[in-house]
Write a structure and sequence with these properties.
Radius of gyration: 19 Å
Shape: globular
Strand content: under 5%
Order of helices and strands: HHHHHHHHHHH
Distance between the termini: 25 Å
Largest sheet: none
Helix content: over 70%
Structural class: mainly alpha
Number of domains: 1
Number of helices: 11
């Protein structure tokens, strides 16, 4: 199984990022441009960000976890379609395809986050310390949530192609309601009651707790995020286990 997963990962690395450094450079530049855009737009309208005084750090700690979730969920959802030619071999299973995509995309995103935020600390000479436990927990929750959503959508999008279009429409508002450019704590009570049920709000809050020592994010619930993620993951795995042969024949 391990050899199969590694082989699938190497194939995706070659097709997604190419055989030159250009593909990997773009993997870093894309989130950097996102953070720069948010920084420029909001620094012109606000005197200071929601936390601290550094705009790039505030938006990076919100945007990068969101981008990791979105990219991981979308890549995982396409696992069967992407690896369909290899799934015809008895030694390659749909679980191998899922694991390969999840592991590669998690490692890539964690590396990108480390490079971007590390660069911000160096460029702006920001003081420490960083609570690495909170940062690690936040990224772990994002990885688990993205995997859960991706695995369930892997079945739904393969079985019902129209679901992919519906999903993209339904999730467009996530960028606006996941705490990327605002603090949950500062929202009106009625808005908080609704936003709390967005698991990404908890992931972003935990991520920011790691970089802002005075920020408690008392609202966040790891158990809620884990519960949602595991429910989606187990449901997706059960559906794929039962129907993956039919999906491959479509």
């Amino acid at each position: 199984m391990a050899r199969t997963v590694v082989a699938l990962m190497l194939r995706e690395m070659a097709t997604t990022y190419g055989r030159s450094a250009g593909g990997y450079i773009w993997a870093v530049l894309e989130p950097v441009l996102g953070v720069v855009l948010l920084t420029v737009l909001f620094s012109m309208a606000l005197r200071s960000p929601g936390l601290g005084s550094n705009f790039p750090l505030f938006y990076a700690t919100g945007y990068l976890p969101f981008a990791m979730f979105s990219g991981l969920a979308n890549k995982t959802a396409a696992s069967i379609r992407y690896s369909r030619p290899f799934l015809a071999y008895p030694s390659v299973t749909f679980v191998d395809a899922l694991i390969a995509r999840v592991v590669l995309n998690v490692l890539t995103n964690v590396a990108v986050i480390a490079i971007v935020i590390g660069g911000i600390f160096v460029i702006y000479q920001l003081p420490g310390p960083v609570d690495m436990t909170s940062v690690f927990e936040a990224l772990l929750l994002v990885a688990l949530l993205g995997s859960g959503v991706g695995v369930l959508n892997c079945y739904l999008m393969t079985a019902f192609p129209i679901w992919e279009h519906i999903w993209h429409i339904l999730t467009r508002p996530l960028f606006l309601v996941s705490g990327i450019f605002f603090l949950y704590d500062l929202m009106p009570a009625k808005a908080q009651d609704l936003l709390w049920y967005n698991p990404l709000i908890h992931c972003v809050g935990l991520m920011r707790r790691g970089f802002y020592p005075t920020y408690e994010a008392s609202y966040l619930s790891r158990a809620f995020v884990v519960g949602v993620a595991l429910t989606l993951l187990l449901a997706g795995l059960a559906l794929l286990e039962r129907n993956h042969r039919k999906l491959l024949e479509r």
